[in-house]
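Researcher: I've got a protein sequence and the SMILES for glutaric acid. Could you write out the 3D structure of the bound complex as structure tokens? I'd like something to compare against our soaking experiments later this week.
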Amino acid sequence: MELKGLLKTQAYINGKWVGAASGKTFDVTNPATGEIIAAIPDMDRSDVQKAIDAADAAWPAYRDMTGKERAGIMRNWFNLMMENKDELAYLMTIESGKVMTESLGEVTYGASFIEWFAEEAKRAYGDVIPQHTRDRRLVVIKQSVGVAAAITPWNFPLAMITRKVGPALAAGSPVIVKPPSETPLTGLAISYLAENAGFPPGVYNTVTSTNSSEVGKEFCENKKVRKLSFTGSTPVGKILMSQSAPTLKKLSLELGGNAPFIVFDDADIDAAVKGALISKYRHNGQTCVCVNRILVQDKVYDEFVDKFTQAVQGLKSGNVLDKDVQVGPLINEKGLNKVKEFIKDAVDKGAIITTGGKGTGGLFFQPTVLANATQEMIIAREEVFGPVAPIFRFHTEEEAIQMANDTEYGLASYFYSKDVNRCWRVAEALEYGMVGINEGIISTEVAPFGGMKESGFGREGSKYGMDYFMEIKYLCYGGVKS
Ligand SMILES: NC(=O)C1=CN([C@@H]2O[C@H](COP(=O)(O)OP(=O)(O)OC[C@H]3O[C@@H](n4cnc5c(N)ncnc54)[C@H](OP(=O)(O)O)[C@@H]3O)[C@@H](O)[C@H]2O)C=CC1
Ligand SMILES: O=C(O)CCCC(=O)O
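Model: Sure. Here is the predicted complex with glutaric acid in place.
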């Protein structure tokens, strides 16, 4: 495909395309074929410092622009993403293995955060508080938090960047993005579009590196960075939080999940099968909101297992660039080994494979269903991040809630029931930041995305998203004579 200048092999700092000061590079490979796509700069802390300095220098002028002016540039950027949708999706597919239809969906989804926050830029309203003494007037304004850094994962090479930089840029904060080393090319491509959209030099920066722990330390320790937003694993989130303590860096952490999907015996079983299928096998099970555990009530257990197994057998594997293919490869060897290890552990402990269970060459693995799953299995506790659906059995509503909440995670959860009273009860009892009720896909730019417990904190998207990139300032006018 003709990529119209979108395949960038340099990083983007202070409005310039640059290599690493050390001259080092690293290769980006296609997980579906193993082919090398490009070599890009392998930066170290000195390069990251340059990006931070540039962002800090750009901050005063950028924050002084009106919301409407910032919105104009963001709107240009959104339009450019949509005009280059096919090219961005192609790049995403070849570097991440995400099937083409899903990549096209992610470009639209990712761009929607820029459209949404461009509109929000004009509405960063403050407040007037009724005075508590006659000679005072109390006003609250919201101001940009300052330079913001973003560390993003490979499973959403575009949307996890835009969901962070959208609110930051709208609020008046320059950004430095560190995309994942597996999938940096989509992030570089949108940096090129950001340049063309008209962001002033230093407002939008992208650094690439395989030395993520050093980049993370610089973001946490550098006092010019006022905010760090991270999506990725819980262990790395904890490292970033402890590294941020000395500078009291403001943090948003969107971490791992262990999503339950509960099917009650009063549910529409066909709808539940459809919801579980799309939620489990989205990006081959590699999202933090993918179903990790399916909990099914006794009476409908066998029916659900049969119908779900049949539906999974209908998923189409093949060339990820074909628009009707639904199953791609795992991102890397580590991901593939995790899948194999979790299946072996489950089978050793009594699970039955009703479909799948085998690798099909390279990083590809069959979509797999495990019946008779139990709490003793690793998959009950840890995120598999792959195409494996364990199905657990429960007897009562209380037991389902107890099983669902029996995890340190609290990101997404789902349940199916036709009983309205039960829907309210269960939704309120689930200790999760997001609950899908008779829905398997819940992500949208208009709703708050984020978790509880060890799934992190902060909310992205929606009317709440910008608050995490703004300071609330209270102004007290005294001596007002009436
Ligand atoms: N919440 C979510 O959406 C995600 C959850 N995960 C979970 O994490 C597991 C492992 O996936 P993995 O990709 O290794 O996730 P990581 O948390 O290791 O990686 C996510 C991002 O953090 C960066 N990173 C890694 N270590 C550090 C560090 N010490 N300091 C700063 N940044 C760092 C990575 O950079 P680099 O790529 O250069 O290493 C990447 O940009 C998955 O199996 C899944 O369970 C993974 C991805 C997303
Ligand atoms: O898996 C993730 O990293 C979170 C993104 C998922 C979504 O936005 O639906």
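Model: The longest helix spans residues 100-121. The CA atoms of residues 43 and 208 lie 6 Å apart.
Researcher: Great, I'll pass this along to the crystallography team.
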